[in-house]
Amino acid sequence: MLRLISLIAFCVAVVAGQEHHHCQSPLHFKAAVLQYDHLTHLYRRGVMLYDGEGERLRFIEETAENDTRPTEDILILFREKKEFVVDMKTKKCEKKAPSHEFHRIGVQEGFNPLPEFMIGDHQDGVLMTAWYRRENSTDMEGISTATYTRASCLPYEYSFEGTAGKEKVHYHRRYYDIVVDELNHEAFAVPKECASSIDDFILP
Question: Which of 7, 87, 90, 91 is 20 to 30 A away from residue 150, measured at CA?
Fold first, then answer.
């Protein structure tokens, strides 16, 4: 499950058109997120909170009564080099350092444009851009694809097939109900299950 959270922070955004140029997604937003790993059949649904300015990320997974695996509240504070993972059923907390660096949700070099397309009709629909890149680094190897709105560079879909570390990965992630707004401090407050000292409560 950690690899899915790691890949969230690696997500990219790009813009297509006659003049291909980089774009950046908004610095702050909240979105419903669906993730599915085709190899492990792991399905996750929850809310993602993103702070590109403060380099903070939170994923609060939805819980269900018949879940057979842990559902988690994951908070990553990249500047402070702290990650907190709470099992939402047992309330146990794991503290550790992030396994990767922060990556702003936005354009990265090396992406190639695919044809633009419209979701909906041409009167009320939304123009989308799609891009792909061959990943070949120490962390990832394979093909990444990304889709974003043309006008605002809002993420819509990201997929990756290949290897992350030593694990095979083939998964999709989609964003819904995006709200662009600066999130308050409580959105990234350290979970009470993890706060062992006053310092945990006053992180910026």
Answer: 7
Burial annotation 18-32 (CB, 10 A radius, 16+ → b, else e): eeeeebebbebbbbe
Task: Determine the residue type at 142.
Answer: G
Distance CA 11, CA 135 (A): 12
Edge-to-edge strands, sheet with 82-87: 93-96, 82-87, 72-77, 56-61, 43-51, 28-37, 167-180, 155-164, 140-149, 126-136, 112-119
User: What end-to-end distance do the CA atoms of the chain give, in Å?
Assistant: 27
Tokens 């996750």 — which residue?
44
25 in Cβ contact with 153 (< 8 Å): yes
Burial class of residue 34 (count of CB atoms within 10 Å of its CB; 0-12, 13-18, 19+): middle
| Sign of the dihedral through C-alpha 50, 52, 54, 56 | positive
Domains of the chain by range and CATH? 2-201 (2.50.20.10)
Instruction: Supply the pLDDT for residue 40.
Output: 79
**Which pTM was predicted?**
0.80
Q: In the structure encoding, which two tokens stand for residue 191, read together?
A: 């979970």
**The length of the chain, given as a count of residues:** 204
Q: How high is the mean pLDDT in each 10-residue block of the chain (204 residues)?
A: 46 39 85 89 90 95 72 95 93 92 80 90 89 86 91 92 87 94 90 72 47
